[in-house]
Design goal:
heterodimer; A: 227 residues; alpha/beta; 5-stranded mixed beta sheet; B: 424 residues; alpha+beta; BirA Bifunctional Protein, domain 2; Rossmann fold; 8-stranded mixed beta sheet; 13 helices; 34% helix
Chain lengths: 227, 424
């Protein structure tokens, strides 16, 4: 049997992903997040990488499959098969402005400086909303930006909303919804079907049964290809 | 030679997504191109060359508006928008429809090896300039034409020595016709998701339970029994015909001796909007991207004023090279070492050998011949000495004294095991 390599993300999705891999019999114990590569059952391998890098591994075929948040799929628009909504890691991407400046959102013509880890998603959202925007691309602690005057507001993930409240920010609009997804390389899907398909079926069965997520913002079909 | 270092500057780099090819990579690139060209010729495909720049309007007319975000654009001196060609099928369709087809009644078989250019999204590591080799068969709407083009693609990959090469063959007619029953906006939604390969939750976008079931199954709809598994979903005449076509096509591909490398695959979604029927992609061990792809595009030439069925494929030369083993590239080539007194003899021998197709490099006695030979994958080192000619085989690390006639006889006779498969 061909060995299968699965890339899983550190951070927010790590614990649930490991729990899933234990349920489907890939991993016997939870590894530490600092491990890079670990062997799983039946000669399979698990790579542990930064959430933003998972799609690079899978698109290029360095990993056959990966587990990644829908937020990364929407932001990076990579050429991979998104096959299963795993149900965990649910959160929303929202625009948030300081509580004292909520009225600025009611004037759609106002140019806003928005700090975010999702520059392309943010640009697409503001374009669709026909609102002018200036994007400040940050890699973490985005909520800090409005406090120090780096930006007027943020686009970021919220789970409970506590971080927003702690930083005196409040949601003004929803940009996208996210949860963990199983993605597969387009060649591995075909040439390693005998090992990929069981993983797809197992994760489908194990994924929490839940209501479908509302359609994510639609982007233009890609015209990129191999010809 | 002295190289000053380190100096910093943009001039030391090339732009993202493009690259240099030095030896021996450049030689492997040309050898593969030559092998593919000669295969195209053996199947009766005549090479065409089109300009690297086209009007933006031409490319958009052929490939659809969606391609605009993925182009290198140039503003011409007159203000016209030009683009570097992103692929060759549209330029060839333009050429054929405007100039070649009006002058001929019979099918056209055209081929190309050409550099193409894409403005890829930032952060992706794919090349923005790369070489494609391919063919277009214009004026034949038959399954025999589809089979010929697929067989040619498979043969090229096989000859190149791609490890574990497989060609997956599908048919857009099967799924298209089932989608056609849906309301227009649902169709658009489903198509957009299919282009993005976004299958998670796709079945919730469809009211029809049978079609939703098919969408759930689609990513796995490949393999020997794919047509059998797809049949229960084929409720219309056209979708049934598409499945029957695939069976016929597969039988034809068996005639070409390709049964072991072709597979059914109804999950293939080609990215360009012009495909209409049979489509295929080729894969090999070691690449996460398809190595080649193509299919039938019966409406494209109509966009340029010549209604004409057509099929073709393009192979990514750089992608194929990346999966080929690099050993065994030893060429029949000689490093000839001679001090100044023997220079004129050396030149005569070199001329004689070159006329027989052997590569010869003449070095002065002071230069380090074995290192030069190794670095350039030359198999032989010949030393002109006062005692006679010493012939050294770098592969076996043996040497012997030979006379001039023997030298010419040994080196000037091509023997099979010294020529790598694709240069033959």
């Amino acid at each position: 049997m061909d060995p299968l390599t699965l890339a899983i993300p550190t951070g927010r999705l790590f614990a649930d992903t490991c729990a899933l891999l234990q349920r489907v019999g890939w991993l016997a114990a939870v590894p530490t997040e600092r491990t890079l590569v670990l062997p799983a059952s039946d000669g399979r391998r698990v790579l542990i990488a930064k959430p933003a890098d998972i799609l690079t591994y899978v698109e290029q075929g360095a990993a056959d499959a990966g587990i990644v948040g829908k937020d990364m799929l929407l932001e990076q628009e990579r050429d991979v098969y998104e096959l299963v909504d795993l149900g965990f890691g649910s959160c929303r991407g929202v625009v948030a402005l300081p509580e004292a400046q909520q009225e600025r959102w009611r004037q759609p013509g106002t140019l806003l400086r928005i700090a975010t880890k999702y520059p392309r998603l943010t640009a697409r959202f503001f374009e669709r909303e026909r609102r002018p925007v200036e994007i400040v691309h940050l890699h973490g602690s985005v909520e800090l930006a409005p406090r120090v005057g780096l930006a007027d507001g943020i686009v970021d993930l919220v789970m409970t909303g506590q971080t927003l409240r702690d930083n005196l920010l409040a949601e003004v609009a929803e940009v996208f919804q996210s949860s963990a997804r199983l993605v597969v390389n387009r060649v591995s899907l075909r040439t390693k079907a005998a090992v990929v398909q069981p993983l797809v079926e197992q994760t489908k069965r194990t994924a929490t049964i839940r209501a479908p997520v509302t359609a994510a913002p639609t982007t233009r079909p890609t015209a990129e290809g191999d010809r | 030679m002295r190289v000053r270092s380190p100096l910093n500057g943009r001039w030391q780099q090339v732009p993202a997504g493009v690259r240099d090819y030095a030896a021996p990579e450049a030689a492997r690139h040309s050898a593969l191109a030559a092998s593919v060209r000669s295969e195209f010729m053996r199947w009766g495909y005549a090479e065409v060359r089109t300009p690297p720049v086209e009007y933006l309007e031409t490319i958009v007319r052929g490939a659809g508006a969606g391609i605009q975000d993925h182009l290198f654009k140039i503003v011409d001196t007159g203000g016209e928008l030009l683009v570097l060609r992103p692929e060759m099928t549209v330029p060839i369709a333009r050429l054929a429809a405007t100039r070649l087809l009006p002058q001929t009644a019979s099918p056209l078989r055209l081929s190309y090896v050409a550099d193409v250019f894409r403005g890829q999204n930032e952060g992706r590591t794919q090349l923005r300039a790369f070489t494609q080799a391919g063919v277009e068969l214009l004026g034949e709407g038959t399954l025999d034409a589809d089979a010929e083009v697929i067989a040619l693609a498979a043969t090229c990959l096989r000859r190149a020595g791609v490890p574990d090469a497989v060609v997956h063959v599908g048919h857009l007619g099967f799924f298209d016709d089932l989608l056609a029953a849906l309301p227009a906006d649902t169709q658009d939604e489903i198509r957009a998701r299919l282009y993005r390969k976004e299958f998670a939750g796709i079945e919730h976008a469809i009211p029809d339970p049978s079609l939703a079931g098919l969408l759930r199954l689609l990513p796995d709809l490949h393999g020997d029994d794919a047509v059998t598994r797809a049949t229960p979903f084929a409720t219309s005449a056209r979708s049934l015909a598409a499945l029957a076509d695939l069976e016929t096509l597969m039988a034809r591909l068996r005639d070409y001796g390709l049964a072991d490398i072709v597979r059914f695959d109804l999950s293939i979604i080609r990215d360009f909007s012009y495909y209409t029927g049979v489509v295929f992609e080729a894969y090999g061990a070691g690449s996460g991207y398809p190595l080649a792809g193509g299919g039938r595009y019966d409406t494209l030439l109509g966009r340029f004023g010549a209604e004409c069925p057509a099929t073709g494929f393009a192979l990514g030369l750089d992608r194929v090279l990346s999966v080929l083993p690099t050993d065994g590239d030893v060429s029949i080539a000689v490093v000839l070492v001679a001090d100044p007194s023997q220079r004129s003899d050396a030149i005569q021998i070199a001329t004689d050998l070159r006329r027989r197709g052997v590569s010869v490099l003449i070095l002065g006695a002071a230069d380090d011949a074995p290192i030069t030979a190794q670095r350039n994958s030359y198999q032989w080192v010949v030393r002109m000495t006062v005692d006679g000619i010493v012939l050294q085989d770098m592969r076996t690390e043996t040497q012997r004294l030979v006379d001039r006639a023997t030298l010419i006889a040994v080196l000037g006779t091509p023997s099979g095991d010294r020529v790598s498969e694709w240069t033959r």
